[in-house]
UniProtKB/TrEMBL annotation:
Reaction equations catalysed: UDP-N-acetyl-alpha-D-muramoyl-L-alanine + D-glutamate + ATP = UDP-N-acetyl-alpha-D-muramoyl-L-alanyl-D-glutamate + ADP + phosphate + H(+)
Family: Belongs to the MurCDEF family.
Name by which UniProt lists this protein: UDP-N-acetylmuramoylalanine--D-glutamate ligase
GO biological process: cell division; cell wall organization; peptidoglycan biosynthetic process; regulation of cell shape
Primary role: Cell wall formation. Catalyzes the addition of glutamate to the nucleotide precursor UDP-N-acetylmuramoyl-L-alanine (UMA).
Binding of ATP, residues: G121, T122, N123, G124, K125, S126, T127
Keyword tags: ATP-binding, Cell cycle, Cell division, Cell shape, Cell wall biogenesis/degradation, Cytoplasm, Ligase, Nucleotide-binding, Peptidoglycan synthesis
Domain of life: Bacteria
EC number: 6.3.2.9
Amino acid sequence: MIPVTSFAGKTVAVFGLGGSGLASCHALKAGGAEVIAADDNAENVAKAAQAGFITADLRNVSWANFAALVLAPGVPLTHPVPHWSVLKAREAGVEVIGDIELFCRERRRHAPNAPFVAITGTNGKSTTTALIAHLTKVAGYDTQMGGNIGTAILSLEPPRMGRVHVIEMSSYQIDLTPSLDPSVGILLNVSEDHIDRHGTLAHYAAVKERLVAGVQAGGTSIVGVDDGYCRDIADRLDRAGKNVVRISVKNPLASGIYFEHGNIVRASGGARSEVAALGGIGSLRGLHNAQNAACAAAAALAMGISQDVLQNGLRSFPGLAHRMEQVGRRGNVLFVNDSKGTNADATAHALSSFADIFWIAGGKPKAGGITGLTGFFPRIRNAYLIGEAAEEFSGTLGTVAHEISQTLDVAVEHAARDAEASGLADAVVLLSPACASFDQYRNFEIRGAKFRELVQALPGVKPVV
């Protein structure tokens, strides 16, 4: 845990008592603050009370003595309308911040030069965060990974030299971190998302920009420049005097890091050199993972990690569960769990990564279905459709070979049989549903775990090393 000493002797309101909210309560108390905990959910309030915290309805208390409101990132700050607790804080002149802001203040007080890598972007945040954490561990750092990827930042160990914090940040978390100042900041990409919480795409992009704009003096801002918003952001950072490393997986760069012919390449001053090779790394297949790997490589190089260590780290990266996760192999058939592919855009990345696919798809359908995936249909040798979306997807697939399997166990059995019988050199049984899981499973993790279990129970399946 990271004790929050910056509010010692003061009273702090904490609203939103999920994982990060309760962690904030504990960290503030450990640092000497008095905490008043609140939530709109009575069960969360009861848990906080059982943990020994003072709880109250913040609508019925005086805000005169509050030094800050620590808000959970899931609570609206600006859109569609500010939460009532935010309005109360503004009326009282009380600052509204989040748990990562508390971390930033502690780092500046106690270890301002301790490495702190912050990662954001519309897509690829979690894989890039996990990959950087893996690379820094391979390089010998005491690595603390958290934030939006799972572990609340204040539940990690405190900042110190030799210890790196690798933190995934959503736009909601950036919004609540006004003094965000990582030593390495990464903005992967910007595309339309979370407009309900930010109002416009331009505002959403501006929030994302703050992560790389806030990088501390002497630090490095890493920006993927394959979309227009990020190209403009990189240019603004240049004009502001930031140390900017541009990343592209679509085009060579005169200065920056790009992906070409399976290699990560660095260009500077007219010279170019290969930094690392991605060929044969199954956990980093696809152009989207090339971007993740290029950004992670840029972060590693900025931290002084050698190219040999970087290459070894890339090759040993196991990937994330349910994201292009290689769960087994039988003969020439590879089984891949991409249960996190809960919409067509996510599934497009998976389909683009293989040539001979026995595709398991379906679940609770989303708007547009799989109509946007028709360009990948030539890669599909057979499709196995499950859940509520089966009939709709069958209609979209048309003449593409497919069956309505209804359930995942039938789909796995039939896909494995057909892939093996195909005789193809690199057949892939791919679960990438392009759907939510809620018709048959509580979440995508449970769906992916079931797929893994079914595959590993098939005779002759061996784990992928």
